[in-house]
Amino acid sequence: YTGLTKYYDTWYYVEQGRLNWGYTGLTNYYGTWYYVEQGRLNWGYTGLTKYYDTWYYVEQGRLNWGYTGLTNYYGTWYYVAQGILNWNYSGIVQWNNENWRVTNGVATEKVASHIVCIDAGHQAYGMSQKEPNGPGSSVMKAMLTTGSAGIVTRQPEYELNLAVALKLKAELLNRGYQVVMIREDNNCPVSNAQRAVYANNSGAEIFVRIHANGSANTSVRGAMAYGPSSANPYMASNVTAASQSLTNTLLNKFCATTGLLNKGVLLDDTMTGINWCTIPVTIIEMGFLSNPDEDRLMATDSFRTVMARGIADGIDAYFGQ
Ligand SMILES: [Zn+2]
Prior knowledge:
The protein is an alpha+beta fold. The chain has 2 domains: about 5-110, left handed beta-beta-3-solenoid (Ribbon); about 115-320, 3-Layer(aba) Sandwich (Aminopeptidase), CATH 3.40.630. It is built from 6 helices and 23 strands. The chain has a 6-stranded mixed β-sheet, sandwiched between helices. Strands 1-2-3 form a 3-stranded antiparallel β-sheet, with no helix packed on it. A hairpin with a 2-residue loop joins strand 11 (about 75-80) and strand 12. Helix 3 packs across helix 6. Bound molecules: zinc ion. Zinc ion binds near residues 121 and 147.
């Protein structure tokens, strides 16, 4: 016999019929792995233990396959995924409401979480009243346009934008970001300039505006993104430069993740929702609702999830994560 046996109130580790006081490690008993320390099952132990070449996470004497998070072992914090120390992992780990940078399984520093403001473009109806398209501008534009609709599915753009924005919010929270939402339902009569000012004052570091495209030509397809030019008269040069970096990075990652055609970046200084921004901003036009294939694709919940992940990948890349 090799395994555990109970004697009075204590479980002992027996090896080939003899109690082995020298054994420290894991042992399996009826499907559960227990932590034995010097021949006795140690119910009080919580932490790492090495078994053959792998480090396992033990909680109160039992291997806990459900644990994912950090654990301290002799002064160093390690990253455990599903009960096993994961030496291959490098990235940001959320733990106890804090973000930690993990490098090859070791938590190296606590990092502040980035704050992202998300605007799901449009809302249930347009706002035809006019507002200046930039601070001090004499050019007046409608406060909010109605947006487009799917040529086949008839899905309104404002619904699609919101669905992806809500998925993006969940994805970013999961990746350790803080998120500010301009709207979380389809009733949000707030103009493009007002949304930009709200984002500016929200504490967010970047403003990501989500839209879908439309064209009279139904064969036009693909994703594109808008940012300000370097000569934008309303924005500070450091903000236009950062906006261009955000726009390029986000579009490239979005297309890589979604597989949508990359139609490139347009630098445009006529857009109200860009010109009023004092933080880096981009407008992603995810795909063409006027193209039957992209309309059908963007109507599916699964592809909306992929698009949200693509935008999150772009935000990760912008922040260098
Ligand atoms: Zn739009």
